[in-house]
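Run log, item B.
One chain of 205 residues. Sequence copied directly from the ordering sheet:
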Amino acid sequence: MPSSLTLYTNPMSRGRIARWMLEETGAAYDVSYLSYGPEMKSRNYVAINPMGKVPAIVHGDVVVTECSAICAYLADVFPNANLAPPLTERASYYRWLFFCAGPMESAAVNKSLGISPAADKEGMIGYGNYDLALDALEKMLPPSGFLCGQQFTAADVYVGANVGWGLEFGTIEKRSIFEDYAERARDRDAYRRAMAADDEAMPKD
């Protein structure tokens, strides 16, 4: 297994999710903070992520971008952390990762931008409309435990972070099942370590 592992991030970004996931694995890693603007769009970084955005991880010669992919990759390459179900039991795990990365995040981002699709165009959009996406989330979330039963997984890192931030920033309605799940998912020492480290790296002015 490659010995070097570097996270490229910014403390005011989705990179917080990747850092939480890294803390869950227990693996040693380095952090390279990039500022928004020219540094993130520099030739050196665009060679890593052509989108010129964070997060990204470089694991030896392997590059992984996109938070959900980073979470899934790290769960696979560090199996001793037990952050993914057995291969034969991954249906819900994959469903949650892709639902959150697709319909749920699109609905939340568009909500924050004040974008609402016209009723006759909802069929062209993966999530239909904001209310439909949130109602689906409410129906799918378990009332107790985690997304894949009692096992905490990388899907809980990704979904738990997105639900928690959505509640904090107003892009997800404050429904009790959302609040309860976010609290369960983030009640982790790894989450607290990751948030403390990124909080420390926040601009001081």
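Observations after the first pass:
- The chain has two domains: 5-82, 87-190.
- The first helix runs from residue 15 to 25.
Flagged for discussion on Thursday.
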